[in-house]
Amino acid sequence: MPKRKTLLNAYLLTALLAFLTSCAQNQEQKAQETLVWETFMNHHDTAFYVGMQPCRECHPLIYESYMRTGMGRSFGRATPIKSASIIGPDSLIYDRHSNLWYRPFWQGETLMIEEFRLEGSDTVHKRREKVDYIVGSGHHTNSHIYIINGYAFQIPFTYYTQVHRFDLPPGFEGGHNSRFGRSLGLECISCHNGLPQLVLGSENKYAQMPEGIDCERCHGPGSIHVALKKKGILVDTARFTDYSIVNPKKLPVQLQNDVCARCHLQGTMVLKNNKSFYDYRPGIPLTTVMDIFLPVFQGGTEDLIMASHVERMTESRCYLASGGQLSCMQCHNPHYSVKETPRSRFSKTCISCHNATGGKTCTKDEALRLAKGNDCALCHMPVRKSRDIPHVMITDHKIINPEREDKRPRVFKGLRAVNNPKVDPFTKGLGYLREYETYHANPAYLDSAPRLLRPGPKKTDTAGLIAFVQYFFLRNEHKNIIKLTDRNGGPETVAAMLHRQSYDNMHAWTAYRIGQAFENEGRRKEALLFLEKSTALAPYQLDFLNRYGGLLANEQQFAQAAEVFDRVIAQNPRNDMAHVNLGWCLQQQGRLFAAHEAYLKALQLNPDNMQALLNLAGYHLSTGMPGLAHPLLQRALKLDPSRQDVRKLLEQ
After folding, report:
1. Cross-strand partners of 118
2. How sure is the predictor about 31, in pLDDT bands with cuts at 50, 70 and 90?
3. Structural domains present in the chain
């Protein structure tokens, strides 16, 4: 483009933005109209995120105070300054279910984690990983992340600051220790951090990872705002609204609360069709992007999950009596830490309503009120345990009368879309499926889903096909998946319906599930069609590649399968299943030494990889070394005493 034309376009853009700003101010002066979310310039798809540094240049004091908040300290490099834990020789975690120990330690300025196993006084397994990031402000926890070639995984080590305790992370306890294999997807990272750049076609591979929840998570993309300010186009915000960026306190109360609810309304999130976690921007209704479901209970002692602040607040009598006009920002200034906020601010919010008529605010006697420091929240917003995170106590944001707690037995009543009272039945059905698959495998969820997912498991649109494939897959009804495929035109037609790449990999997951169904029914040709499709749509989803390569190996296509497993290992050298599978292909090709090395690598990464134990034992038996096979088979039988095939091999 000629330079003159470029300059002309830049001039026109500046003039247009100035005109739009002027128009917005004039409209506000003339009509004092109710602010609607479509007004803001940074909701346009040309607006982009610029990071915190430009904000810091113009708002240094706000930046400094914000960086002391929990959000500002939410995510960062694993350094001694970032870590809240005091790590010493006795900082050990033992998982009795897996018989594995974990020892965090500092190697200079680098945080390391060592996994090991003892048998008697002997160390029979040892693995070390570098910790790359610490997630959590340190108010409640520090959890830990490592990155391999952009893939983000959680480390089995959390420090619980309130009780000064090292323990396994939430979800790793009770025999569910996924060790170094828990993938951290966009849903997780996008609330604990600024928006990362997820690689399309992956679950947890990132091209860029920010360091902390930044200003734009609450104010929206800053590119237009920064560009206007650098051009000297300013707005007197004492008199007018600056429409180049969202100021949450200028929003209607519901939209204010939606900004907070994006991350402080934890639950089962069902994205709208063709939406992703990138699509929410402050100032738009959260329901345009997602519906958030939580289980509803009746009776009994109430409990809560860690990030349920908005849900609990909206259940309060105070919120209901206000007609939904109670805002998070009436008590919280996001620019200042809760620890630095005077407690009197919270009580002042209560008194602004409860003493509005000049009557008596509290019915308790003066001595008790003085003992509590006249702090309303100490009685009416008690500190409770979190049911989803151990060793953590949090303030319950449901404002209650503590003397009226329900003593009846606690009974589950169903799921509710907390942010959308008008949710449609189909979306609610998806909520039941996702709640079952992601959080609680309660059979009642699967019983409820099909009635909501109507018209039923017959010829349907793509959304219906995806939903019923997921439903049948969760019920292990593979024949019904095949019937559903046939009713929708057969494998070739259905494979063609699944064509869209997205950050949630929904089409890829559906192809993967259909492929597994055909494989489990012995129809490998159709299975290959769908598994290959899943890897084409999500080429960086390594579980899909492993499954596809495994099916190729079962079809005796060992060279092609080995290429697939090499792709997995190139992406993530810590993927123990890819090493096992590659070893099998190499063994079948007569490359015995390379196969042996692949099996050993898999067991180095995961000493309890059952397939690696059996494959290596089989390798030793086939090469006439039963003495080396014996301990491997013993270990396999210890892991799964029901394996009669292993028992027979040991007897032989």
Report:
1. 123
2. very low
3. 73-213 (no CATH), 248-351+373-452 (no CATH), 455-536 (1.25.40), 540-652 (1.25.40.10)
